[in-house]
């Protein structure tokens, strides 16, 4: 009986198949539509293919059609590779597209493109159906680079049920010097080991892959333009490795478990950072547990901007900064949990508008509470002199004070956007020890700089600014501003002089 049923079912299936209409593809000479007229692929570095891009090809007609031919303009010599609905090749024939439907083309470029000796490598995808010929342009910048790939994995165990954390890293040579002959590309963490030194010369471009960073291990040294032979016009740049134009100012592209650049504590840990731009990280620069009698990090002519979390983090650190500009960041521009800090002629202007922001331009605290509400304190001493601290929030200065611990913070001859009557009265603007000859909550205007597009961030005081002539000279006052202009006397508050 079951065998009879099987025969009947097979007969019914055969009848259905024989009665089904054949799908015809009569369309020809149809004008295709595309999701883009140019596809930009990210920069190719030595040994690595680009990310994959997708082109959608539309049949806008009411007829099914066959695209007779889809092929690369450079033919078999092309370094681009494509896949059309599962079919790979450089010359693909007879691609069927239903009426009012579409097909997908997946595109990437081979790392062999570096052999082309072209700075910008271009090709086109051509489409032929009937007498119609159309094309889409492909554009990729092609660079050679020096790579730092991880060779080790550090396992950090955590309390159950949390899985252990894995941190991939490589150790740099004992005394490396990076120059601007080729960009450096870092995967995982590149580690400046204890008693090792890395020096980065002016104009060097350093690119970090997603989740990567630079780790200056205890008693290691990092020196960026230590002889001050460069300027902001040929600055060292720390940035992500996605170089399509649309990614240039996207926050949070690099920086792993330890942050982007991590300066770890140690009696002889040293970082001197000059004429440097750090952009698009998570937490960009972290100086941690490094409070010593001498600064563990000295910053001179540094721009840190577009961090998804914090531009500059000090965890019980010792940092000095001159001509520092901190731009938009998702939480804090500068955050310090204890430590010792001196900032002279700095501009901290957090105009973050990518999402909501929970922090302020600066946050200074001398305590923290763990998950069990146990309190730990860290003494803090900080001086902000001749500096601007503002942004697009109602108040851009946050002070967390435990009165049982040292909190010696002062703002001198500076301009602050700050709540004048804080809840619980943690501070008072009439306190002449903490607040000395400042101006508060004015409508300061700014112009764009040569280094960052106007729509991304403006931090040069405009011609009507009240910041002009309000600074006072000190032994720490740099003779030149961030851009290399001689400071006027009296000078302008902030990192940049009058335009």
SSE map:
Elements (H helix, E strand, L loop, with lengths): L1 H18 L13 E2 L3 E7 L8 E7 L5 E8 L7 E5 L2 E3 L1 E7 L3 E9 L10 E10 L2 E11 L3 E3 L3 E5 L8 E7 L3 E4 L5 E3 L2 E4 L4 E4 L4 E4 L4 E4 L4 E4 L11 E5 L20 E4 L5 E10 L5 E4 L8 E9 L4 E17 L5 E13 L2 E4 L11 E4 L1 E3 L5 E3 L2 E6 L2 E4 L5 E4 L6 E6 L2 E2 L18 E2 L2 E2 L5 E3 L9 E4 L38
Parallel strand pairs: 2-10, 11-15, 13-16, 14-17, 15-18, 16-19, 17-20, 18-21, 19-22, 20-23, 21-23, 22-24, 23-25, 24-26, 25-26, 26-27, 26-28, 27-29, 27-32, 28-33, 29-34, 32-35, 33-36, 35-37, 36-38
Antiparallel strand pairs: 1-3, 3-8, 4-7, 4-9, 5-6, 5-8, 9-10, 12-13, 30-31, 39-40
Structure in words:
The chain has 499 residues and is mainly beta. It has a 26-stranded mixed sheet that branches. It has a five-stranded antiparallel sheet with strand order 1-3-8-5-6, with no helix packed on it. A five-stranded mixed sheet has the order 2-10-9-4-7, with no helix packed on it. β12 (152-156) and β13 form a beta hairpin. The protein is elongated, with a radius of gyration of 29 Å.
Distance between the termini: 96 Å
Mean pLDDT: 91
Shape: elongated
Sheet with most strands: 26 strands, mixed
Helix content: under 10%
Counting helices, strands and paired strands, the structural category is: mainly beta
- The whole-angstrom Rg is 29 Å
* Total count of strands: 40
Q: What is the beta-strand fraction?
A: 35-45%
Number of helices: 1
Say what oligomer this is: single chain
Q: Low-confidence segments, ≥5 residues, pLDDT <50? A: 1-20
